[in-house]
Design brief:
homodimer, alpha/beta, Rossmann fold, Arc Repressor Mutant, subunit A, 2 domains, nine-stranded mixed beta sheet, two-stranded antiparallel sheet, 16 helices, 11 strands
Chain lengths: 368, 368
Amino acid sequence: MARVGLSRVVEPGDLAALKAFDGLEPLEIWDRLHHNDPDLDRWSTRLATADPHRDLERAAAAGARFVIPGDDEWPDQVEILEDAGQLTRRAGVPFGLWVRGKPNLRTVLTRAIAIVGARACSSYGEHVAAELASGLADNGVTVVSGGAFGIDAAAHRGTLAAAGLTIAVLACGVDVSYPKRNSALLSRIAEDGLVVSELPPGCSPTKLRFLARNRLIAAATQGTVVIEAAVRSGALNTAGWAEQCGRAVLAVPGPITSRMSAGSHLLVRERNAVLATNVADIIEATAPFGTSLTPHPRAPETLTDSLPTDLQRTLDAVPVRTPAPTPRIAATAGLDVPTTQQSLEALTALNLTTQTPTGWHLKTPPTP
Amino acid sequence: MARVGLSRVVEPGDLAALKAFDGLEPLEIWDRLHHNDPDLDRWSTRLATADPHRDLERAAAAGARFVIPGDDEWPDQVEILEDAGQLTRRAGVPFGLWVRGKPNLRTVLTRAIAIVGARACSSYGEHVAAELASGLADNGVTVVSGGAFGIDAAAHRGTLAAAGLTIAVLACGVDVSYPKRNSALLSRIAEDGLVVSELPPGCSPTKLRFLARNRLIAAATQGTVVIEAAVRSGALNTAGWAEQCGRAVLAVPGPITSRMSAGSHLLVRERNAVLATNVADIIEATAPFGTSLTPHPRAPETLTDSLPTDLQRTLDAVPVRTPAPTPRIAATAGLDVPTTQQSLEALTALNLTTQTPTGWHLKTPPTP
């Protein structure tokens, strides 16, 4: 109950609270707040109207529960925020998480990747977000995002389309449809996956709450993939949190002519993010050691590549159709006649050249 | 004259020649080749028809000269090939370079970047190659490429369009128009810039000559920029040479949905190439230490970003238009009333909020 109350009274990631309550258990904090300590005056206004029982009822009405440390569902990994980000503005472990949806939060976060990016993304970004999300879902990875327009929505939709698990971590109450036009999407996520927030029911989003929310997305997942982000954006803020939490940071490249990909390129160039070009890249960078090896695109070595140099030079000198005699091929190849003769015989044995009464020509044209 | 003759007799980067002639001066090699040493038989066929005087005349007729070590025009940096690539197939310093065009080869290579890439490039690749080449030219950088279709041609054309210096390094004689459809372009390059090859006049290109040519492009420049390349391509071969020569390797990203950008992404992911998104990136990665600082895109810090947290939280809680009284703003912000009152006064002093008889509202909507 103290944690429910604190979730209402204290702003997410409030550094003043972290400082004032350092080392105290939630119950002690809750008690102290009720003792009219003038040092704790900044929380008095909200404390006056806080009603944990009502918040729990309101949550239940919306199909939501409150998950706290020690619960079976609590995702321990968010406790990294105890140490991470002490120098930034929105730090700290949440007092608890409001969770709407059926799956067990801890279980679905066992293998989870965040996909974040621009609201005003391009159709390329939208396409790529949906494709990567589907691919991750096909590999049993839960896709976490922020429920916003653009990349977030495409990632959620791509996961749902692949019948995968997706989690929307909001900067408002889990019963609040923000943005409004995503309300059908958020309902679907709550039905098949989870909608999560550290803010109690009814809360509206604010700029600072978005920043605080980003730390949860980063901390709860094994890696954050940025797909399209302007050079100053929430997605880069999430990437910064992932860095601070020791999580993988990945960025999807795009055309250098697109302003929307500038943030991704900046992450790779200046913040050492891993370039992500496909699902395998993401799984490789975020999987526990040794669990996954990425098959990278490699063209097959062709037979002609593995030929000894003399044979290759001879082959280069053999005409495609009109036969040429050995001495002429030798001159073109820059080899002596015996070596050339020997090479031509070897090439013919390899089915690469053909001998005719007037000389040699290629059997099939070499691949360009 | 010995070097002219050797340029005709020995294939570019022939490892057998490197081995047989190790430590010998060109004149000694030339003499030895004429002594019918059976170990040197492989060069006998070409030696029989080699005619250095005729090659020089033929070059002169095509407006070309032969540049050798010690000449005022000789670009010393290609001598890195003495040490680089001993384990690969096409190594070694060329005996000399056939040069067609007016500028001094050494001078124009003082500040030079290679731009290479796919022949069958996309229009994105072509556009980017031309833009980056123009930009480099505007910065006084010579743009070096291979005279091929696609990225090469776009880089040459972009440089010429910016009235910059461009060099085509060919895998055939400098008097040979290959590919045929680029002959007008090659003539323009020879007129305004330089056409260079280690092969004597009249020589045709072969697959191995392309690979040998790539080592010259890499060695002669301060860095190689790959724009669009399949995962197995000449451009990646050039990048490999640049790596071996200790030159900068850069790759331009593109859509992950484009097969043409796969080679560029591979270079960044697996071979530590620098991600190149603009001219400044390229100049920064290839300039001598301390000569250049890249201005990277950064959005300006806004006033609201630098506000203390209490002010920012208060500002977040102030309605856009309909005024709200201090206690309501305090509750929304999660701050006590005196702190909120103080913050609102400060925000009004900063011209961010306005006080009305019924409360406070924003002066101008904050930037989203």
